[in-house]
Amino acid sequence: MRSEGTELTTGQAPGHAAAGSAERMLSGDEAGSAAAKPATLDDLVGIVAVQVRAQASRIQELELALADAEARILSQARLICGATAAANSDLFNRRPVRAIIEEALGAYPGISFEDIIGVGRERRLVEPRHRCMTAVYDERPDLSLPALGRIFRRDHTSVLHAVNKREPGNARRRGRTQQPGRLPANAGADGIGAPAF
């Protein structure tokens, strides 16, 4: 059983509930009270509960979306950091060309770095120079043949010849499937298929 003080009309604040009920009772106007159906406190509590549940559901959706976005950002950050670290380690772990050449020259006493990169064409320099070219070619895949040629003060074809001469059956670690600068055995004049007649 409800008392008249617990009824509220829609659109009124809860503090005005008693005043609104009292005014209706005093006026005695039944037509006015029928037009504005009074809402009970239980009805308002139900409406508020539905709105609170809807807002809680929306908050939960937003929290899940935020967690998903944070996870994607962290994943991308890990990828970027990993790629940066790999690139930096590759840059800083490269041995200088001079160190590679001097290591290769360890087997050839009496021949200096200057002899190798010099313009001399003596027979005693050919084999050590080719060995140095091959060592640098193998250890520094970031350097192109023209760059290696500039280092040794030679044409890039000299480096190519040294590599082919030292390791005839070895394909370069850069992913070549055949010797550099050579056509396959079955390549024709056009370089594609069987020999042209």
Structure in words:
This protein has 197 residues and is mainly alpha-helical. It is built from 8 helices and 2 strands. α7 (145-151) packs across α8 (156-166). It is rod-shaped and about 115 Å long. The longest helix is centred in the middle third of the chain and has 52 residues, at 41-92. Among the domains are: 38-93; 97-166, Orthogonal Bundle (Chromosomal Replication Initiator Protein Dnaa, Chain: A), CATH 1.10.1750.10. Strands 1-2 form a two-stranded antiparallel ribbon. InterPro entries: DnaA_C, Trp_repressor/repl_initiator. Pfam families: Bac_DnaA_C. Residues 96-166 form the Chromosomal replication initiator DnaA C-terminal domain.
Summary, kept brief:
With 197 residues, the chain is mainly alpha-helical.
Spatial arrangement of strands, main beta sheet: 1-2
Structural class: mainly alpha
SS summary, helix count: 8
Q: Note the gap between the termini.
A: 112 Å
Poorly predicted regions are 1-33, 181-191, 193-197
Rg over alpha carbons: 44 Å
The CATH homologous superfamily of the domain at 97-166 is termed DnaA protein, C-terminal DNA-binding domain
Primary descriptors:
197 residues, mainly alpha, Chromosomal Replication Initiator Protein Dnaa, Chain: A, disordered N terminus, disordered C terminus, ATP binding, DnaA_C, Trp_repressor/repl_initiator, Chromosomal replication initiator DnaA, sequence-specific DNA binding
